[in-house]
Amino acid sequence: xxxxxxxxxxxxxxxxxxxxxxxxxxxxxxxxxxxxxxxxxxxxxxxxxxxxxxxxxxxxxxxxxxxxxxxxxxxxxxxxxxxxxxxxxxxxxxxxxxxxxxxxxxxxxxxxxxxxxxxxxxxxxxxxxxxxxxxxxxxxxxxxxxxxxxxxxxxxxxxxxxxxxxxxxxxxxxxxxxxxxxxxxxxxxxxxxxxxxxxxxx
Amino acid sequence: xxxxxxxxxxxxxxxxxxxxxxxxxxxxxxxxxxxxxxxxxxxxxxxxxxxxxxxxxxxxxxxxxxxxxxxxxxxxxxxxxxxxxxxxxxxxxxxxxxxxxxxxxxxxxxxxxxxxxxxxxxxxxxxxxxxxxxxxxxxxxxxxxxxxxxxxxxxxxxxxxxxxxxxxxxxxxxxxxxxxxxxxxxxxxxxxxxxxxxxxxxxxxxxxxxxxxxxxxxxxxxxxxxxxxxxxxxxxxxxxxxxxxxxxxxxxxxxxxxxxxxxxxxxxxxxxxxxxxxxxxxxxxxxxxxxxxxxxxxxxxxxxxxxxxxxxxxxxxxxxxxxxxxxxxxxxxxxxxxxxxxxxxxxxxxxxxxxxxxxxxxxxxxxxxxxxxxxxxxxxxxxxxxxxxxxxxxxxxxxxxxxxxxxxxxxxxxxxxxxxxxxxxxxxxxxxxxxxxxxxxxxxxxxxxxxxxxxxxxxxxxxxxxxx
Lengths: 202, 468
Ligand code: SF4
Known about the structure:
heterodimer; A: alpha/beta; Aconitase, domain 4; seven-stranded mixed sheet; 32% helix; 16% strand; B: alpha/beta; five-stranded parallel sheet; binds iron/sulfur cluster
């Protein structure tokens, strides 16, 4: 997994509440068996019309937000399904961090497993940032995971909270399997005590 | 004093290090074609095996054609995904139910049906509606593909414990009011993020009086309120359902299991982080009007005005939903014509759901402007419905009778709506584009959808003239 230590990049806002995983990656693209290439289909039904031509109205298609790598979103971003295809698409498109007042829970966990940093910030702060992306051309934010600070070049500076384990994981680019595998003995020990009535399929 | 959730959690802790997430053991891992190929790839790349193939089982459901289940899949990617799943299961020694075989079906329908879902277990699947299995008092939740790989490799999962939310429903559901109306009503009240960070335990008389199938419908949609999982304490209804199911314990083990299962309930005076109480008697048939399951009203209500929304953001979301749905405020739900009716999905395609819908349909014809399909939740449900004569009732009325699969719940196969088409659906999500680009979905109970298919618009099921 790619590490996340510090990132500076252009910010773009899609500030609607409850954007679900079906919007982030419409399900017609769930049939692929790889992890890559999903960026082309991110927000597909909003980004493209019925004939596959870019919709000029949609914010990610606007020149000034080209190459944005930080997404600012509304509350409950990523609600809905558990499919990791949504974070894969965001990451593959080029997003490295998402800031929102709250996130869908499974989506939140999945994103960290993909190397995306999700930051929960109070709605008031999010609104301020949304306005900045709208009024300032090529507005950039810097996110430092070591110091847990978000800042811009205009004096904005805010610290954020994040689960320590998740932070470590991103800083070092670790995956959870290696962590769990350190406890093989405990797993075997647990297995030896499982009740006999529990079903086995083989 | 421990809640049901605390008890199941405690009994699955493999290792807990201060300040770290907990390693919990997973008793059953359900897998399907959509969320596993990348996980198996991961295993291959790191040279790992499936730790417990005996606790892992697969089915094919999302991309399966339901019209003619044995027809070749035209979509290149869907076909590749199905073939990859087959190959992966064979390579890693995992049992799976192939397309059209006896037990194949939607992942959350087939497992309870053969008795694999039992009280006190931990169950995961790369699918958010895994919450369904909580109806048995099992801790069951959806996971992402990285986590699928984790469970395949270690049979464990790194988890942080959620908070406890008790939803207590007293009283009795009125005539014609089903588990689906109940859960839609709850989501309408608490919102799509109302249970974010929580595991919900449903309790109260109205829950006790539900069948296992009704309980599954309720738990199924817990995720639509943002919950990690839904739980219902097991009782006689649960035990009766499980008895003699193929994978249920037998003989002495059954007795032992029952003794244990009876301890699986929240202790009196357990501390819940949040409690939400409501009365079942007040609930009327529910129909969604918007693009989240929380945008729901009673069948006789009018579509709300965006100005009644809590704040400016919600107002915009309301407005957007109305535009997408092609509706305007103050319109009555019963005045909305539909052109499609879908009876299916892991929410409402079990045998009881089909019985309820068939009762409504019997003796009637589907409205000439409506296309209606029934997609049983599993091949077992399909066979049973055929032997009970339900299939005949549906086909005589003009419904298409299909093979099992997710079908129009997610529209990943050939079953999808054209832009602007409006569907009465027994599924769980009315998101933009869920049933096809530009599709308009109204969620309701099987009986309500069946009645809408016949009338051509929604009607209050409580006034239905049943022909016997
Ligand atoms: S029926 Fe619908 S909700 Fe259920 S598993 Fe299939 S796609 Fe998901």
